[in-house]
Queue: 2 jobs
Job 1
Amino acid sequence: MISVVAPIYNEVDTLAELHRRLSSTLQPLGPYEVVLVDDGSSDGSWNRLLELAASDNHLRLVRLSRNFGHQAALSAGLDAARGDAVVVIDGDLQDPPEVIPDLVAAWRDGYDVVYAVRNEREGETWARVASASVFYRLLQRITSTPIPRNAGDFRLLSRRAVDALAQMPERARFLRGMTSWIGFRQTGIAYDRDARYAGASKYSLPRQLGLALDAISSFSTTPIKAVTALGFALVVFCMAVLGWTLYVRFFTADSVQGWTSVIAVVLLLGGVQLLSLGVIGQYVARIFDETKQRPLYLVDEVVDGSAASNGEPQRRG
Ligand code: UDP
Ligand code: MG
């Protein structure tokens, strides 16, 4: 069986079209289920989902108790999916469902992770494409896990890949990096990314930065190493300055001068120390988050779709 997982956060206008396109793509592929995770929507998405589930027993709905964020919603969907292969797709139709048969074909050829690589990104701002490009380049440089560039969360995972992800307990989830990390046989397939079907992106700039921070600090200790190197260089620099001041004090006459250089050194050191503390603090904060061992998400209810025309969808609290 093939499972398709999509996170849904305030996508009410997209749901019917998403359901239609997913169903028509998946039907020829054999048995399938569609797991839609409502990530605390407040626009009536849940009721629309219930309507869809009332007449389609391929649907499985998971409603989280509040908005936990995209990556947590994906984790909830992966945990609820029961297929032998699980396709993760955005709920806004930016990832065309018609690519799924290609992903499935690669899986049938023996690949465990088949990620879809974006050729073109339609309907996205120039700034968004540029910042994504800079980010993926930077990430590639400073991590030892190769994270494919231009691949979002649209991908297929085999059962053992899904189980491997479920074993990774970290709270700060950057699933793109985590699926690269697990290894097995991985491959990419190119596709053109569409514009959103309806609504606006839920990734504001702060949220994008948050994801970038999660990605960097979960997959790289380079910032901490850089801080250490910087500290070391500054110690050498300060020793030199100290030598110079001693020389001026004991071997020349103009020892009262130097206010500017003193202030400059104080400011420089103060700034670097604060920056370094900030970077180290980032990692400490993450250690704190991880040690709390909170669940990634809480499920409010799970509804399995039903094909019976009069039947209410089956609810499980
Ligand atoms: N999403 C979610 N929870 C959130 C934010 C987004 O489940 O807190 C879903 C959203 O409904 C969409 C997918 O994650 O299906 C990708 O979000 P979006 O399209 O806003 O991101 P972008 O494509 O702009 O990166
Ligand atoms: Mg989107």
Job 2
Amino acid sequence: MTIRTEAAIAYEVGRPMVIEQVELDAPGEGEVLVEVKAAGLCHTDLGVWEGHSPIGATFPLVLGHEGAGIVLETGPGVTDLEPGDHVITFAPECQLCGACHSTKGNFCEAVLSGYGAEPSITAGGRRVFAGYGVGTFANHLVTTSSRLARVRKDAPFDEISYLSCGATTGIGAALIEAKVEAGASVVVFGLGGIGLNIIQGARMAGATTIVGVDINPQKGAMALQLGATHFVDSSTLEGDLVGHLLELTRGGADYTFEAVGNIRLMEQALATARIGWGVCTIVGVAPSGEKLGVLPFDLIMGRKLQGTAMGGVRGKSQLPEIVDWLMEGRFDLKSLITARMPLSAINEGYDGMRRGEGLRSIITF
Ligand code: CXF
Ligand code: ZN
């Protein structure tokens, strides 16, 4: 049986999404039908939509990978979810492949074989792909159980939809990928919806020097509210930014993060990592084809360079605990959700992101 629902379809690169009635296939083997209650506007989707992301995509497609909702129906073979469960969409964790069986990283083999799962959406007789195999810009979606984490039912959908990517990516980058420790010094380049969560993660880890850097002076107050000890407005800074940061951190930070996707910032983040042991973690997704200029000698001098997707977090197994932390008040997402809108306003929501407005916009259903 097919399910009728409404979805925002991107037909062509960069063209406005169109809200349409679509048909979803009933969940097949290992799949689940979810009623979406909240979906976040993540910057990664903008790059995919505009065609300059290394992730790539097949059009037409329903974008959106940040989402939270309620399980309506499970297909054959799904044993860990049942109707009524509250779930967060996330990158796959099949718990069966070699990568999931290892203790290293969060790259389930389903991720390595591409984000585009089999399309389950039809619009006007045409097959439509779901971004990252999820497609949360729709009232309902069908995806694999591996892409859904079951979480407690008292957590608000808008906040946990942000944990579906942006917030978890930031917090995980600090706590899981970089493993920031108590007393550490941290510099975060870019204080958007991810960078501010890296600051929260660093604060949760007990870092004692946390420097936020942004070209927008308005980001400073929020960074300090969430745990930064210093804010550097790089738009008005006179002189060399790296030199200033090396001074602030007394010779370089234990941990630096780039959360914009800007090559020059990545190079500055590496140069700000302390000689001997500083770890620079790349979190922002740079446009396809852009290359990072790294001096091998910077690495010889003991700096480490690494990257992370989704903060190194495994969704199915680790998100329930992160939701507990949210509900215990260990970090704040309410202050970061700066707009809520219906699905019909999705194009305007992304226009706001292009203008650099707000921190996280959430579609509520
Ligand atoms: C992305 C980051 C780059 C790899 C795919 C997932 N995260 C979400 O926005
Ligand atoms: Zn995202």
